[in-house]
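User: I'm curious whether this sequence folds into something compact or stays loose and floppy. Could you predict its structure so I can see for myself?
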Amino acid sequence: LFVIKSISRLNAIKKSALPLQNKTIRVLYHNCLKELNIKRNIPIYSAAFLKSPIIVGLFNPRIYLPIHLISDFHANDKGNACPSGYEGMPGERLNAADMRYILLHELQHYRHKDALAGFFMNFFGILYWHNPCVWYALKEMRNEREVACDTSVLKLLAESDYADYGNTLINFATKVSLTPFPFSSGISGSMKQMQQRI
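Assistant: Here's the prediction. I'll summarize afterward.
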């Protein structure tokens, strides 16, 4: 029932999504693709009804960015004193460095083939829905998947950028949905999980 409900919500998001129009973010995105040496064309969309970015698709991967995240983006902002006000809070902005971290994280999910892993995780979750050990194992696997992406992003960054990346995660910790869509990956996790990752 959870998977069916989530797939229905995901389909609604896909139907309402539009190709990303923000030119600055598109340039950042293409730079991230080059940085990671990803040759595949992975379309990027803006979508309503999302709290955090996700990458979806086993055979045709696509990235969806929340509209509120795009509207809070200001490429010319310096520093990260008031990091990433994704809900449009006064005086808080999402700068180019924050957006780069987010895009790199999502693309790491593609590089790690997390869509395939997610398929099998959900399959076994449905098959063994009655076993609490399986639910716990799946929760831990999702968290470890996020840690692996964070680690891969950090390898690309200068050590002086680690704190800024951590601040970006902290901002998501209070804003993301704690029930991730099946068959998708993205920055997610509870506050406790985010603290462990940081």
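Summary: Strands lie at 18-19, 44-47, 54-56, 62-66, 184-186. Helices lie at 2-16, 23-35, 67-71, 96-111, 114-127, 132-156, 162-173, 191-197.
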